[in-house]
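Deliverable D2.4 — example input (structure tokens):
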């Protein structure tokens, strides 16, 4: 008695995997650019302007991180 079990496994093509990786890389680069830009803009504010916004200088990196990457 012979039993044949047939199944197909479809793996993503190399180009699809490469495209997905490239897309993820571009998204990470955009997030990192937003992080750097946010830090730069907040650091350029005076102490008075930061106080008006309720931001202490020590919180700038945390605020920028949250803005770019979320919680």
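Example output (designed residues):
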């Amino acid at each position: 008695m012979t039993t044949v079990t047939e199944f197909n496994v479809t793996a993503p093509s190399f180009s699809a995997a490469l495209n997905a990786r490239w897309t993820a890389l571009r998204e990470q680069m955009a997030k990192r650019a937003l992080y750097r830009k946010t830090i730069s803009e907040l650091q350029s504010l005076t102490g008075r302007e930061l106080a008006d916004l309720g931001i202490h200088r020590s919180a700038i990196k945390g605020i920028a991180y949250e803005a770019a990457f979320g919680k």
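The mean pLDDT is 92.
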